[in-house]
Amino acid sequence: MSERACPTCRVITRGNVCPKCKSSSLSDDFAGLLIMLDPEDSVIAKATNIKEKGRYALKVR
């Protein structure tokens, strides 16, 4: 199964439903990968409005 990204919250998953927002509208068309390990102390997390650990797409089409 290939990876897909949620256009709502940009989480990357291999499932059919987003584990974060429970959306089933996932896209195969995404670019970039951001792995967030420490969102509380990350400047990048603040700039991208990410509050939880995980794998995120930078752009979802």
Draw up the topology in text.
Layout: E1 4-5, E2 12-13, E3 30-31, E4 34-36, H1 43-48, E5 54-56, E6 59-60
Antiparallel strand pairs: 1-2, 3-6, 4-5
Features:
two-stranded antiparallel sheet; mainly beta; 61 residues; Rubrerythrin, domain 2
Written overview of the protein:
With 61 residues, this protein is mainly beta. The protein has one domain (4-60): Rubrerythrin, domain 2. The protein has one helix and six strands. It has one helix at residues 43-48, and strands at 4-5, 12-13, 30-31, 34-36, 54-56, 59-60. The longest helix has 6 residues, at 43-48.
CATH fold-level assignment: Rubrerythrin, domain 2
Tally of helical runs: 1
Structural class: mainly beta
Number of strands: 6
Largest sheet: 2 strands, antiparallel
Distance between the termini: 19 Å
Mean pLDDT: 96
Strand order of the largest sheet: 1-2
Count of domains: 1
Quick structural summary:
This protein is mainly beta.
